[in-house]
Amino acid sequence: MESKVLITGATGVTGENAIARLLELKIPVRALVHKLDERSAQLTALGVEVVEGDLTDFNSVSAALKGISAAYFVYTIQAPGIIEATAYFIQAALEEKVSHVVNMSQITARRESPSHGAQNHWLAERLLDHSGLSVTHLRPTLFAEWLAYFAREIKGNNRLLSPFGNASYASIAGEDTGRVIATILANPDDYAGKTFELSGAEEMTQQQVADLLTEILGRKITYIPMEIDAYGQMLAQFSDPYFVQHIAGIAQDFRDGLSGGINDNVEKITGQKPLTMEAYIKKNIDLFR
């Protein structure tokens, strides 16, 4: 039987980019999506097998992993449930004899994290490590796509809001992360048992990002540094309390310098340098102007 890989979060920024690269490599893909919609229809049109399910439902996870040789596991940071979902995924993967799992974690994942979300990612890593499955953990910095989440504010009010103060970090684009995921799924034996921190091309402060937006867009974009509590109150209007607490925790971590540093893991794994923030903005210019 031909090997097939499973991509969870298939319509998200890492999943969709991993799928694109896997299709280029002629590797059959099954995509697990939360609901069937226009985005999943686009995957079907590309020749991807699409299944509807939820990582918090053991039966649908088990069904999605049937006949799968390797899988990408990612759970949203915006809601609780990663520990239970990880346990479901582990048991289903063991039952279906999945040979390798690529796990999406994050740069701030550690036992002592003030963020419950980041701490839970660390715990999920440990569950996978103790499971007996062959696993690769990915710990990216914040995605460049975070900028897109605030596109309406940038477009409408010419402001970039952030709780990260003067912290400097190297944002990584989902495009680059997706290529890393696909490369590992295509050659899992080369990466088994390893953890990779993934950074973008350059460290930048949010002030520098605002200056870059100003230069590219040809209009003044003002950086508005917000206190962590005030930013959390703003987020609470439209986000789960779990996510608000997570952002408060990592904002403090970033202010304390835990976000800094650059590595060449993206280039080592994929053979291609990661996008710069300038390149990311220009590729997605319509979001901001």
Describe, in plain words, how this protein is organized in 3D.
- By secondary structure, the protein is of the alpha/beta class.
- It has a domain at 5-141 and 172-198 and 262-274: Rossmann fold (3-Layer(aba) Sandwich).
- It has helices at 13-24, 38-45, 58-64, 82-95, 116-130, 146-149, 151-157, 174-186, 206-217, 228-235, 241-255, 265-270, 277-283, and strands spanning 5-7, 29-33, 49-52, 70-73, 100-104, 135-140, 159-162, 195-198, 222-225.
- The strands form two sheets. Strands 3-2-1-4-5-6-8 form a seven-stranded parallel β-sheet, with helices on both faces. It has a two-stranded parallel ribbon with strand order 7-9.
- Helix 5 (116-130) links the parallel strand 5 and strand 6 (135-140).
- The model has no long low-confidence stretch (mean pLDDT 96).
Q: Which overall shape is indicated by the principal axes computed on the Cα atoms?
A: globular
Q: Any guess at the CATH architecture of the domain at 5-141 and 172-198 and 262-274?
A: 3-Layer(aba) Sandwich
Compressed to H and E, one letter per element, the order equals: EHEHEHEHEHEHHEHEHEHHHH
What is the name of the CATH class of the domain at 5-141 and 172-198 and 262-274? Alpha Beta
How is the biggest beta sheet arranged?
A: 7 strands, parallel
- Mind telling me the C-alpha Rg? 19 Å
Percent strand: 5-15%
Number of helices: 13
Low-confidence stretches: none
Here the CATH topology of the domain at 5-141 and 172-198 and 262-274 equals Rossmann fold
What integer is the average pLDDT? 96
> What's the β-strand tally?
9
**Structural class, from secondary structure content?**
alpha/beta
Helix content: 40-55%
